[in-house]
Amino acid sequence: MNSSQRSQDFLARRAPRTRHCQGTARAIASECAKFKLHMWLSTLGLTGSKKKVHSTMNEVVTQEHIIDIHRGTWGVNFKKHAPPELREIWKFAMKEVRTPDVPISIRLHKAVWPKRSRNVPYHIHMQLSTKK
């Protein structure tokens, strides 16, 4: 008995009796194995039939974050805290959204500069929204 016959016997004994796997064990074992392989590959998207996948580019995904922006001002002059904190927000947003094009809204900009440059908040709540 060679290896292909052994594998067919194994499949015939182990294969569950479904609608596609009915009949004599030896005759149907290879067809059943092919069908199961085809179904498994189709779930992974590796079969020959290429269906058009609809794009989800119009779906907007919003994430809420609390950022510790105070760590960006460590070692910076007291009256120049706001610009490094804005840079820290921009770096965090770039990392989360995974794109270099990150605009900062005017509301967020005004929240960082509430009382001029020096009294900047340590943490800030922000929402990142991207088109997926």
UniProtKB/TrEMBL annotation:
GO molecular function: structural constituent of ribosome
Protein name: 60S ribosomal protein L31
GO cellular component: cytosolic large ribosomal subunit
Protein keywords: Ribonucleoprotein, Ribosomal protein
Top-rank taxon, per record: Eukaryota
Cytoplasm among keywords: no
Taxonomic lineage of the native organism: Eukaryota, Metazoa, Chordata, Craniata, Vertebrata
Membrane-spanning parts: none
Pfam families: Ribosomal_L31e
Family to which the UniProt record says this protein belongs: Belongs to the eukaryotic ribosomal protein eL31 family.
Record PANTHER family: 60S RIBOSOMAL PROTEIN L31
Gene Ontology process terms (BP): cytoplasmic translation
